[in-house]
Amino acid sequence: MKYITRIVSELQTSNPKRYLRSAYWIILSRILSLGVSLIATFYIARTLGPQNFGELSYATSIVSLLSFFAALASSTVLTRDLTRNPTSEQTILGSAWLIAFSGTIVTTILIAIFVILFPHDQLTILVIAIIAMAQFLASFQITQNYFIVHTETKLVSIAQLAVHITISLAKIIAMTYHQGVLVLAGILFLEQVLIACSLIFLYWRTAHHTPLAWKVDRQYAKKLAFDSLPFVIITLSSTISGRIDQVFIKQMIDTSTVGIYNVAVQLTEVWQVIPLMFLAALYPALVNVHQTKNVYNKRLLALFLTLTFYSIAASAVTFFIAPYFIPLIYGAAFISSIPLVQIYCWALFGTVSGYLATNYLITENKRTAQIVVGLIPMVVNVILNIAWIPTYGATGAAWATVISYSCTPIIAALYYFAHNKRQTKYA
Questions:
Q1: I need a surface site. Which of 234, 241, 282, 293 has the fewest CB within 10 A?
Q2: Contacts (Cβ under 8 Å, ≥6 apart) of 338
Q3: Number of domains comprising the chain
Q4: CB 90 within 8 A of CB 298
Q5: Distance of CA 270 to the CA centre of its chain
Q6: Chain Cα centroid distance, residue 92
Q7: Full residue range of the structural domain in which residue 333 is found
Q8: What does DSSP assign to residue 208?
Q9: What local confidence, expressed as pLDDT, does residue 21 receive?
Q10: Which letter, b or e, does each residue of 155-173 get, where b requires 16 or more Cβ atoms within 10 Å of its Cβ?
Q11: What global pTM score does this model have?
Protein backbone atom coordinates (compact mmCIF):
# COMPACT_ATOMS: atom_id res chain seq x y z
CA MET A 1 0.00 0.00 0.00
CA LYS A 2 2.87 2.40 0.81
CA TYR A 3 4.38 1.62 -2.58
CA ILE A 4 1.17 2.47 -4.46
CA THR A 5 0.73 5.65 -2.37
CA ARG A 6 4.26 6.71 -3.28
CA ILE A 7 3.56 6.21 -7.00
CA VAL A 8 0.35 8.25 -6.87
CA SER A 9 2.20 10.95 -4.92
CA GLU A 10 4.88 11.09 -7.60
CA LEU A 11 2.29 11.43 -10.35
CA GLN A 12 0.77 14.35 -8.43
CA THR A 13 4.11 16.16 -8.10
CA SER A 14 4.40 19.50 -9.91
CA ASN A 15 0.62 19.76 -9.97
CA PRO A 16 -0.44 17.48 -12.81
CA LYS A 17 -3.67 16.85 -10.87
CA ARG A 18 -5.62 18.18 -13.81
CA TYR A 19 -4.14 15.37 -15.91
CA LEU A 20 -5.22 12.84 -13.31
CA ARG A 21 -8.75 14.30 -13.37
CA SER A 22 -8.69 14.01 -17.15
CA ALA A 23 -7.50 10.42 -16.88
CA TYR A 24 -10.24 9.72 -14.33
CA TRP A 25 -13.03 10.65 -16.75
CA ILE A 26 -11.47 8.77 -19.66
CA ILE A 27 -10.86 5.63 -17.61
CA LEU A 28 -14.27 5.75 -15.91
CA SER A 29 -15.99 6.07 -19.27
CA ARG A 30 -13.98 3.21 -20.73
CA ILE A 31 -14.64 0.92 -17.77
CA LEU A 32 -18.39 1.49 -17.97
CA SER A 33 -18.30 1.17 -21.77
CA LEU A 34 -16.36 -2.06 -21.47
CA GLY A 35 -18.85 -3.46 -19.03
CA VAL A 36 -21.75 -2.79 -21.38
CA SER A 37 -19.81 -3.90 -24.48
CA LEU A 38 -18.75 -7.14 -22.82
CA ILE A 39 -22.33 -8.04 -22.00
CA ALA A 40 -23.21 -7.51 -25.66
CA THR A 41 -20.16 -9.47 -26.84
CA PHE A 42 -20.92 -12.43 -24.58
CA TYR A 43 -24.50 -12.53 -25.84
CA ILE A 44 -23.34 -12.26 -29.45
CA ALA A 45 -20.82 -15.09 -29.04
CA ARG A 46 -23.39 -17.40 -27.42
CA THR A 47 -25.96 -16.60 -30.10
CA LEU A 48 -23.72 -16.79 -33.16
CA GLY A 49 -21.61 -19.75 -32.06
CA PRO A 50 -17.91 -20.28 -32.93
CA GLN A 51 -18.45 -20.40 -36.73
CA ASN A 52 -20.25 -17.06 -37.24
CA PHE A 53 -18.42 -15.41 -34.36
CA GLY A 54 -15.20 -16.42 -36.08
CA GLU A 55 -16.45 -14.92 -39.35
CA LEU A 56 -17.01 -11.52 -37.72
CA SER A 57 -13.67 -11.73 -35.89
CA TYR A 58 -11.87 -12.57 -39.12
CA ALA A 59 -13.37 -9.61 -41.00
CA THR A 60 -12.47 -7.24 -38.16
CA SER A 61 -8.92 -8.63 -38.09
CA ILE A 62 -8.44 -8.08 -41.83
CA VAL A 63 -9.51 -4.42 -41.61
CA SER A 64 -7.33 -3.87 -38.52
CA LEU A 65 -4.32 -5.43 -40.20
CA LEU A 66 -4.56 -3.21 -43.26
CA SER A 67 -5.49 0.08 -41.56
CA PHE A 68 -2.01 0.84 -40.24
CA PHE A 69 -1.59 3.87 -42.55
CA ALA A 70 -4.18 5.69 -40.43
CA ALA A 71 -1.43 5.91 -37.79
CA LEU A 72 0.38 8.46 -39.98
CA ALA A 73 -1.56 10.94 -37.82
CA SER A 74 -0.33 9.42 -34.58
CA SER A 75 -2.39 10.39 -31.55
CA THR A 76 0.72 10.55 -29.38
CA VAL A 77 2.60 12.80 -31.81
CA LEU A 78 -0.49 15.02 -32.12
CA THR A 79 -0.76 15.35 -28.35
CA ARG A 80 2.91 16.28 -28.17
CA ASP A 81 2.59 18.94 -30.89
CA LEU A 82 -0.66 20.40 -29.55
CA THR A 83 0.91 20.65 -26.09
CA ARG A 84 4.02 22.39 -27.40
CA ASN A 85 2.29 24.63 -29.99
CA PRO A 86 -1.19 25.60 -28.70
CA THR A 87 -1.41 28.64 -31.03
CA SER A 88 -1.22 26.37 -34.11
CA GLU A 89 -4.08 24.18 -32.97
CA GLN A 90 -6.33 24.50 -36.04
CA THR A 91 -3.45 23.95 -38.44
CA ILE A 92 -2.26 20.89 -36.53
CA LEU A 93 -5.74 19.35 -36.42
CA GLY A 94 -6.50 20.14 -40.07
CA SER A 95 -3.24 18.69 -41.30
CA ALA A 96 -3.69 15.63 -39.07
CA TRP A 97 -7.21 15.01 -40.38
CA LEU A 98 -5.98 15.16 -43.99
CA ILE A 99 -3.22 12.66 -43.23
CA ALA A 100 -5.62 10.34 -41.37
CA PHE A 101 -8.21 10.50 -44.16
CA SER A 102 -5.56 9.83 -46.81
CA GLY A 103 -4.41 6.85 -44.79
CA THR A 104 -7.97 5.52 -44.84
CA ILE A 105 -8.06 5.74 -48.64
CA VAL A 106 -4.83 3.72 -48.81
CA THR A 107 -6.36 1.21 -46.37
CA THR A 108 -9.41 0.78 -48.61
CA ILE A 109 -7.21 0.11 -51.63
CA LEU A 110 -5.16 -2.46 -49.68
CA ILE A 111 -8.33 -4.23 -48.51
CA ALA A 112 -9.65 -4.38 -52.09
CA ILE A 113 -6.35 -5.87 -53.30
CA PHE A 114 -6.39 -8.43 -50.47
CA VAL A 115 -9.94 -9.55 -51.25
CA ILE A 116 -9.06 -9.92 -54.94
CA LEU A 117 -5.85 -11.87 -54.31
CA PHE A 118 -7.36 -14.18 -51.68
CA PRO A 119 -10.84 -15.36 -52.67
CA HIS A 120 -13.58 -15.08 -50.03
CA ASP A 121 -17.25 -15.92 -50.00
CA GLN A 122 -19.75 -13.13 -50.64
CA LEU A 123 -20.79 -12.75 -46.98
CA THR A 124 -17.20 -12.26 -45.82
CA ILE A 125 -16.57 -9.67 -48.55
CA LEU A 126 -19.69 -7.68 -47.57
CA VAL A 127 -18.79 -7.72 -43.86
CA ILE A 128 -15.22 -6.60 -44.61
CA ALA A 129 -16.53 -3.83 -46.92
CA ILE A 130 -18.93 -2.42 -44.31
CA ILE A 131 -16.33 -2.42 -41.54
CA ALA A 132 -13.80 -0.83 -43.92
CA MET A 133 -16.20 2.03 -44.80
CA ALA A 134 -16.46 2.87 -41.11
CA GLN A 135 -12.75 3.72 -41.12
CA PHE A 136 -13.42 6.89 -43.15
CA LEU A 137 -15.33 8.34 -40.19
CA ALA A 138 -12.65 7.25 -37.73
CA SER A 139 -10.39 10.04 -39.06
CA PHE A 140 -12.45 12.54 -37.02
CA GLN A 141 -11.26 10.88 -33.82
CA ILE A 142 -8.16 13.06 -33.98
CA THR A 143 -10.43 15.68 -32.35
CA GLN A 144 -10.04 13.78 -29.08
CA ASN A 145 -6.49 15.09 -28.82
CA TYR A 146 -7.85 18.63 -28.37
CA PHE A 147 -9.81 17.56 -25.28
CA ILE A 148 -6.90 15.53 -23.87
CA VAL A 149 -4.45 18.43 -24.20
CA HIS A 150 -6.91 20.88 -22.62
CA THR A 151 -7.82 18.26 -19.97
CA GLU A 152 -11.51 18.71 -20.83
CA THR A 153 -12.42 15.06 -21.22
CA LYS A 154 -15.56 14.92 -19.07
CA LEU A 155 -18.17 15.68 -21.74
CA VAL A 156 -16.35 13.62 -24.38
CA SER A 157 -16.18 10.64 -22.04
CA ILE A 158 -19.88 10.89 -21.20
CA ALA A 159 -20.81 11.22 -24.89
CA GLN A 160 -18.74 8.20 -25.88
CA LEU A 161 -20.22 6.19 -23.02
CA ALA A 162 -23.71 7.03 -24.33
CA VAL A 163 -22.68 5.88 -27.82
CA HIS A 164 -21.27 2.59 -26.53
CA ILE A 165 -24.43 1.90 -24.51
CA THR A 166 -26.60 2.63 -27.54
CA ILE A 167 -24.51 0.42 -29.83
CA SER A 168 -24.37 -2.42 -27.31
CA LEU A 169 -28.15 -2.36 -26.94
CA ALA A 170 -28.50 -2.37 -30.73
CA LYS A 171 -26.28 -5.47 -30.93
CA ILE A 172 -28.31 -7.28 -28.27
CA ILE A 173 -31.59 -6.39 -30.00
CA ALA A 174 -30.17 -7.60 -33.33
CA MET A 175 -29.23 -10.94 -31.76
CA THR A 176 -32.61 -11.22 -30.05
CA TYR A 177 -34.25 -10.98 -33.48
CA HIS A 178 -31.79 -13.58 -34.85
CA GLN A 179 -29.93 -11.22 -37.15
CA GLY A 180 -26.53 -12.25 -38.54
CA VAL A 181 -23.01 -10.87 -38.95
CA LEU A 182 -24.06 -8.53 -41.77
CA VAL A 183 -26.37 -6.59 -39.45
CA LEU A 184 -23.69 -6.52 -36.76
CA ALA A 185 -21.23 -5.04 -39.27
CA GLY A 186 -23.82 -2.34 -40.04
CA ILE A 187 -24.10 -1.55 -36.33
CA LEU A 188 -20.30 -1.20 -36.14
CA PHE A 189 -20.55 1.33 -38.99
CA LEU A 190 -23.27 3.21 -37.10
CA GLU A 191 -20.99 3.35 -34.07
CA GLN A 192 -18.35 5.30 -36.02
CA VAL A 193 -21.05 7.67 -37.31
CA LEU A 194 -22.25 8.47 -33.79
CA ILE A 195 -18.73 8.87 -32.40
CA ALA A 196 -17.71 11.24 -35.22
CA CYS A 197 -20.87 13.35 -34.84
CA SER A 198 -20.52 13.62 -31.05
CA LEU A 199 -16.85 14.64 -31.27
CA ILE A 200 -17.54 17.31 -33.92
CA PHE A 201 -20.47 18.69 -31.91
CA LEU A 202 -18.49 18.86 -28.64
CA TYR A 203 -15.51 20.41 -30.40
CA TRP A 204 -17.80 23.10 -31.77
CA ARG A 205 -19.33 23.75 -28.32
CA THR A 206 -15.96 23.81 -26.52
CA ALA A 207 -13.52 25.36 -29.01
CA HIS A 208 -16.19 27.38 -30.89
CA HIS A 209 -14.85 26.03 -34.17
CA THR A 210 -15.86 23.30 -36.57
CA PRO A 211 -13.60 21.13 -38.73
CA LEU A 212 -14.44 23.56 -41.57
CA ALA A 213 -12.18 26.09 -39.80
CA TRP A 214 -9.21 23.74 -39.79
CA LYS A 215 -6.26 24.64 -41.98
CA VAL A 216 -3.77 22.48 -43.79
CA ASP A 217 -0.05 23.21 -43.70
CA ARG A 218 1.76 20.99 -46.17
CA GLN A 219 5.08 21.34 -44.40
CA TYR A 220 3.60 20.39 -41.05
CA ALA A 221 1.61 17.56 -42.66
CA LYS A 222 4.87 16.13 -44.04
CA LYS A 223 6.54 16.54 -40.66
CA LEU A 224 3.62 14.88 -38.88
CA ALA A 225 3.68 11.97 -41.31
CA PHE A 226 7.45 11.65 -40.95
CA ASP A 227 7.33 11.82 -37.14
CA SER A 228 4.48 9.32 -37.11
CA LEU A 229 6.15 6.89 -39.52
CA PRO A 230 7.80 4.90 -36.70
CA PHE A 231 4.39 4.77 -35.03
CA VAL A 232 2.95 3.31 -38.23
CA ILE A 233 5.52 0.52 -37.98
CA ILE A 234 4.75 0.05 -34.29
CA THR A 235 1.01 -0.01 -35.04
CA LEU A 236 1.59 -2.48 -37.86
CA SER A 237 3.73 -4.62 -35.57
CA SER A 238 1.17 -4.53 -32.78
CA THR A 239 -1.71 -5.26 -35.13
CA ILE A 240 0.10 -8.10 -36.87
CA SER A 241 1.10 -9.58 -33.53
CA GLY A 242 -2.49 -9.34 -32.31
CA ARG A 243 -4.41 -10.20 -35.51
CA ILE A 244 -2.28 -12.15 -37.97
CA ASP A 245 -2.68 -15.27 -35.85
CA GLN A 246 -6.43 -15.25 -36.56
CA VAL A 247 -5.79 -14.95 -40.29
CA PHE A 248 -3.31 -17.85 -40.17
CA ILE A 249 -5.71 -19.93 -38.09
CA LYS A 250 -8.51 -19.44 -40.63
CA GLN A 251 -6.22 -20.38 -43.52
CA MET A 252 -4.46 -23.30 -41.77
CA ILE A 253 -7.31 -24.64 -39.62
CA ASP A 254 -10.89 -23.29 -39.91
CA THR A 255 -13.24 -20.41 -39.07
CA SER A 256 -14.65 -22.06 -35.92
CA THR A 257 -11.17 -22.15 -34.40
CA VAL A 258 -10.89 -18.42 -35.10
CA GLY A 259 -14.04 -17.91 -32.99
CA ILE A 260 -12.61 -20.07 -30.18
CA TYR A 261 -9.26 -18.27 -30.31
CA ASN A 262 -10.87 -14.83 -30.39
CA VAL A 263 -12.24 -15.39 -26.89
CA ALA A 264 -8.65 -15.37 -25.61
CA VAL A 265 -7.90 -12.23 -27.60
CA GLN A 266 -10.97 -10.39 -26.33
CA LEU A 267 -10.54 -11.28 -22.66
CA THR A 268 -6.95 -10.03 -22.80
CA GLU A 269 -7.70 -6.89 -24.81
CA VAL A 270 -10.30 -5.89 -22.21
CA TRP A 271 -7.48 -5.29 -19.75
CA GLN A 272 -5.49 -3.19 -22.25
CA VAL A 273 -8.00 -0.36 -22.48
CA ILE A 274 -7.48 1.17 -19.02
CA PRO A 275 -3.67 1.59 -19.21
CA LEU A 276 -3.95 2.85 -22.80
CA MET A 277 -6.42 5.56 -21.77
CA PHE A 278 -4.41 6.27 -18.61
CA LEU A 279 -1.23 6.89 -20.61
CA ALA A 280 -3.06 8.96 -23.23
CA ALA A 281 -4.40 11.29 -20.54
CA LEU A 282 -1.09 11.57 -18.67
CA TYR A 283 1.18 11.91 -21.71
CA PRO A 284 1.03 15.76 -21.68
CA ALA A 285 2.36 15.60 -18.10
CA LEU A 286 5.43 13.75 -19.39
CA VAL A 287 5.98 16.16 -22.27
CA ASN A 288 5.77 19.19 -19.96
CA VAL A 289 8.60 17.93 -17.70
CA HIS A 290 10.78 16.46 -20.47
CA GLN A 291 13.49 19.04 -19.92
CA THR A 292 13.52 18.43 -16.16
CA LYS A 293 15.24 15.04 -16.36
CA ASN A 294 14.99 14.16 -12.68
CA VAL A 295 11.21 14.61 -12.55
CA TYR A 296 10.81 13.09 -16.02
CA ASN A 297 12.68 9.91 -15.11
CA LYS A 298 10.78 9.55 -11.84
CA ARG A 299 7.46 9.77 -13.63
CA LEU A 300 8.58 7.24 -16.23
CA LEU A 301 9.60 4.84 -13.48
CA ALA A 302 6.38 5.40 -11.55
CA LEU A 303 4.29 4.70 -14.64
CA PHE A 304 6.30 1.60 -15.55
CA LEU A 305 6.00 0.07 -12.08
CA THR A 306 2.30 0.87 -11.94
CA LEU A 307 1.66 -0.72 -15.33
CA THR A 308 3.77 -3.76 -14.44
CA PHE A 309 1.80 -4.35 -11.25
CA TYR A 310 -1.47 -3.86 -13.12
CA SER A 311 -0.64 -6.22 -15.99
CA ILE A 312 0.63 -9.06 -13.80
CA ALA A 313 -2.38 -8.80 -11.49
CA ALA A 314 -4.81 -8.70 -14.44
CA SER A 315 -3.14 -11.72 -16.09
CA ALA A 316 -3.29 -13.72 -12.87
CA VAL A 317 -6.99 -12.92 -12.39
CA THR A 318 -7.75 -13.95 -15.98
CA PHE A 319 -5.76 -17.18 -15.64
CA PHE A 320 -7.60 -18.34 -12.53
CA ILE A 321 -11.16 -17.32 -13.43
CA ALA A 322 -11.09 -18.59 -17.05
CA PRO A 323 -12.22 -22.19 -16.24
CA TYR A 324 -15.28 -20.85 -14.42
CA PHE A 325 -15.99 -17.72 -16.43
CA ILE A 326 -15.94 -19.05 -20.01
CA PRO A 327 -18.49 -21.90 -19.64
CA LEU A 328 -20.78 -19.60 -17.65
CA ILE A 329 -20.66 -16.62 -19.99
CA TYR A 330 -19.74 -17.91 -23.46
CA GLY A 331 -21.36 -21.31 -23.14
CA ALA A 332 -20.28 -24.93 -23.58
CA ALA A 333 -19.37 -24.38 -27.27
CA PHE A 334 -16.38 -22.25 -26.19
CA ILE A 335 -14.91 -24.49 -23.44
CA SER A 336 -11.92 -25.35 -25.64
CA SER A 337 -10.83 -21.70 -25.44
CA ILE A 338 -9.93 -22.02 -21.72
CA PRO A 339 -6.31 -23.20 -22.20
CA LEU A 340 -5.85 -20.57 -24.91
CA VAL A 341 -7.00 -17.82 -22.55
CA GLN A 342 -4.65 -19.09 -19.83
CA ILE A 343 -1.70 -18.75 -22.20
CA TYR A 344 -2.67 -15.62 -24.12
CA CYS A 345 -3.39 -13.52 -21.01
CA TRP A 346 0.34 -13.38 -20.17
CA ALA A 347 0.91 -11.26 -23.29
CA LEU A 348 -0.64 -8.38 -21.34
CA PHE A 349 2.63 -7.25 -19.73
CA GLY A 350 4.39 -6.91 -23.07
CA THR A 351 1.45 -5.06 -24.58
CA VAL A 352 0.93 -2.59 -21.75
CA SER A 353 4.61 -1.82 -21.19
CA GLY A 354 4.91 -1.45 -24.97
CA TYR A 355 2.47 1.49 -24.82
CA LEU A 356 4.75 3.28 -22.37
CA ALA A 357 7.84 2.40 -24.41
CA THR A 358 6.21 3.97 -27.48
CA ASN A 359 5.33 7.16 -25.60
CA TYR A 360 8.87 7.40 -24.23
CA LEU A 361 10.54 6.99 -27.63
CA ILE A 362 8.19 9.50 -29.28
CA THR A 363 8.93 12.04 -26.55
CA GLU A 364 12.66 11.51 -27.14
CA ASN A 365 12.01 11.67 -30.91
CA LYS A 366 14.08 8.51 -31.46
CA ARG A 367 12.70 7.26 -34.76
CA THR A 368 15.24 4.50 -35.35
CA ALA A 369 14.62 3.00 -31.92
CA GLN A 370 10.86 3.16 -32.52
CA ILE A 371 11.26 1.26 -35.78
CA VAL A 372 13.41 -1.43 -34.13
CA VAL A 373 10.94 -1.78 -31.25
CA GLY A 374 8.15 -2.14 -33.81
CA LEU A 375 9.76 -4.51 -36.29
CA ILE A 376 11.40 -7.16 -34.11
CA PRO A 377 8.23 -8.33 -32.27
CA MET A 378 6.33 -8.41 -35.58
CA VAL A 379 8.94 -10.56 -37.30
CA VAL A 380 9.19 -12.90 -34.30
CA ASN A 381 5.41 -13.28 -34.19
CA VAL A 382 5.00 -14.09 -37.88
CA ILE A 383 7.86 -16.62 -37.87
CA LEU A 384 6.57 -18.39 -34.75
CA ASN A 385 2.99 -18.50 -36.09
CA ILE A 386 4.10 -20.06 -39.36
CA ALA A 387 6.29 -22.57 -37.51
CA TRP A 388 3.94 -23.52 -34.67
CA ILE A 389 0.33 -23.36 -35.95
CA PRO A 390 0.68 -26.38 -38.29
CA THR A 391 2.08 -28.45 -35.39
CA TYR A 392 0.44 -27.05 -32.26
CA GLY A 393 -2.66 -25.37 -33.68
CA ALA A 394 -4.18 -22.38 -31.85
CA THR A 395 -2.00 -23.11 -28.80
CA GLY A 396 1.08 -22.37 -30.89
CA ALA A 397 -0.46 -19.06 -31.98
CA ALA A 398 -1.11 -18.08 -28.36
CA TRP A 399 2.50 -18.80 -27.34
CA ALA A 400 3.77 -16.92 -30.39
CA THR A 401 1.87 -13.83 -29.24
CA VAL A 402 3.17 -14.02 -25.65
CA ILE A 403 6.79 -14.38 -26.75
CA SER A 404 6.69 -11.70 -29.44
CA TYR A 405 4.97 -9.15 -27.20
CA SER A 406 7.60 -9.72 -24.52
CA CYS A 407 10.30 -8.48 -26.91
CA THR A 408 9.01 -4.89 -26.81
CA PRO A 409 9.73 -3.96 -23.16
CA ILE A 410 13.08 -5.79 -23.27
CA ILE A 411 14.29 -3.82 -26.32
CA ALA A 412 12.94 -0.52 -24.95
CA ALA A 413 14.59 -1.10 -21.55
CA LEU A 414 17.96 -1.82 -23.19
CA TYR A 415 17.67 1.40 -25.17
CA TYR A 416 16.63 3.41 -22.10
CA PHE A 417 19.62 2.32 -20.02
CA ALA A 418 22.05 2.77 -22.93
CA HIS A 419 20.64 6.25 -23.62
CA ASN A 420 20.92 7.33 -19.97
CA LYS A 421 24.43 5.92 -19.77
CA ARG A 422 25.52 8.01 -22.76
CA GLN A 423 23.91 11.13 -21.27
CA THR A 424 25.72 10.56 -17.97
CA LYS A 425 29.03 10.01 -19.78
CA TYR A 426 28.86 13.28 -21.74
CA ALA A 427 27.24 15.36 -18.98
A1: 293
A2: 322, 323, 326
A3: 1
A4: no
A5: 10
A6: 22
A7: 2-426
A8: S
A9: 65
A10: ebbbbbbebbbebbebbbe
A11: 0.65
